[in-house]
Design a protein that fits this description.
- The protein contains five helices and no strands.
- The chain is mainly α.
- 9% of the residues are buried.
Length: 103
C-alpha cells in the first residue's frame, strides 16, 4: 500500500473507532450522554439506533472493498486482516480517555 492510502486507512479507522466509542458511550452512559448532548435520554436511545445503522453500513462497505482484494501470499493476507481491525486500538484509546476524564 502507498503512504497516501495508509493515511486514509488510518484516518478512516480513527473516525470509525470514534463512532464505535460514541455507541459504547450511549449504551453504558445514556444519562451522561444526554447531559453532554443537552437532550433527553429518549432522544439518545432513538439516536443510538440510527448511529448503529450508520456504523453497520460503513463497516459493510469497508469490508466489501477488502473482500475484492485477493492476497497472493500469507504476508498480504495478514496485512488485510490487520487493516480490517485497525479501528480497535482507536476505539480502546477513546474509551480509556473517557474513563479517565469522566470517572
Amino acid at each position: 500500500m502507498h503512504r497516501k492510502s495508509l493515511l486514509k486507512l488510518n484516518l478512516f479507522s480513527c473516525l470509525y473507532g470514534f463512532l464505535l466509542f460514541v455507541l459504547t458511550f450511549m449504551i453504558f452512559q445514556p444519562y451522561r450522554a444526554a447531559a453532554i448532548l443537552n437532550s433527553s435520554v429518549e432522544l439518545v436511545s432513538k439516536g443510538f439506533f440510527f448511529v448503529a445503522i450508520l456504523a453497520a453500513v460503513i463497516y459493510m462497505s469497508f469490508m466489501s472493498r477488502f473482500a475484492r482484494q485477493r492476497p497472493q501470499d500469507w504476508k498480504a493476507a495478514l496485512a488485510i486482516a490487520l487493516y480490517a481491525v485497525l479501528w480497535f486500538p482507536y476505539w480502546l484509546l477513546f474509551v480509556l480517555i473517557a474513563y479517565y476524564l469522566l470517572r
